[in-house]
TrEMBL record:
Protein name: Enoyl-CoA delta isomerase 2, mitochondrial
Record-level Gene Ontology MF annotations: delta(3)-delta(2)-enoyl-CoA isomerase activity
Keyword flag Isomerase: yes
UniProt source species: Folsomia candida (Springtail)
Annotated CDD domains: crotonase-like
């Protein structure tokens, strides 16, 4: 049964702990006629479009461990959901798409000695790799950290002209993540990828478009209207055609991306990152 809004719920909250492990059993789906919000993530399915919205406006949509897990669950659910033709990832507000990983969560992982392969980010990134439905990034505001690197997994990226793109990994002792060590040189070239990932460059939306990361840029006051026109137009195409198109473009690389992500995780030092996060927070007080 599919109403105006199709909402996915999960019977369990399990998660895989390392790259390459079997995926969890998320249980059966249930349906509702209204959107659901869980762990600051809104998920709706309407007109063939599954929309995953980061909804933590007061924290600039900073992503917590549970937000990562919920988004990852929804991405995997889309693979089995005949009502989903395409998946949209966006954020609330106009200032930030997302400000990246919540620093307090990084510190908690450090204090609890949580391995890189056991955190929510691993669930989310692995789900991005495994998502079989076309992904669209609607960058409603500035993107930081994984808010930038996740875009390389998207088939299309539409951005507000007020958005900026920055990956402050070097400040936090974080190596390139979300397969950016492979995907970014491929998309924007080695020089620009290095400037962004290693040297903390910040790009405007226009620069991100010129470099090939962003598909279209719209004025802020027209962003939602114009971007959603394109999303809805894509959703008019046959589901099987969309599925096959993505498979032809992405399936050959999926085994390589799994390996790249595993290598990136092996370079992630929880102690270095945790201590760097604490220093950064202290410097802001």
């Amino acid at each position: 049964m599919v109403g105006k809004h199709l909402i996915t719920r999960f019977a369990s909250r399990g998660a895989f702990s390392t790259v390459g492990n079997a995926y969890p059993n998320y249980g059966v789906r249930a349906f509702s006629v209204s959107p659901i919000r869980r762990d600051d993530v809104d998920v709706t399915v309407e007109g063939g479009i599954r929309t995953i919205t980061m909804n933590r406006l007061s924290k600039h949509n900073a992503i917590t461990d549970q937000m990562y897990r919920q988004m990852g669950k929804s991405l995997l659910e889309s693979n089995r959901d005949e009502a989903t033709k395409i998946v949209v990832i966006t954020g609330v507000g106009e200032k930030y798409f997302t400000s990246g990983y919540d620093l307090k969560n990084l510190i908690q992982d450090y204090n609890n000695r949580v391995p890189a392969g056991a955190n929510g980010a691993t669930v989310f990134i692995s789900s991005l790799i495994e998502c079989k439905k076309p992904l669209i990034g609607l960058v409603n505001g500035s993107a930081v950290g994984i808010g930038v690197t996740l875009l390389a997994h998207c088939e299309a990226v539409y951005a507000s002209d007020q958005a900026h793109f920055n990956t402050p990994f070097i400040k936090l002792g974080i190596p390139p993540e979300c397969c950016s060590s492979y995907l970014f040189p491929k998309i924007v070239g080695h020089a620009k990828a290095g400037a962004l990932l290693h040297f903390n460059d910040t790009w405007t939306a226009q620069e991100a478009y010129e470099y090939g990361l962003v598909t279209r840029v719209f004025p802020q006051d027209k962003f939602k209207t114009e971007a959603w026109k394109l999303v809805k137009k894509m959703a008019e195409h046959p589901a099987e055609t969309l599925l096959n198109s993505k498979a032809l473009l992405r399936d050959k690389e999926r085994p390589l991306l799994r390996k790249v992500f595993e290598e990136e995780n092996s370079k992630f030092d929880v102690e270095v990152v945790g201590q760097s996060a604490m220093k950064l927070i202290a410097s802001r007080k």
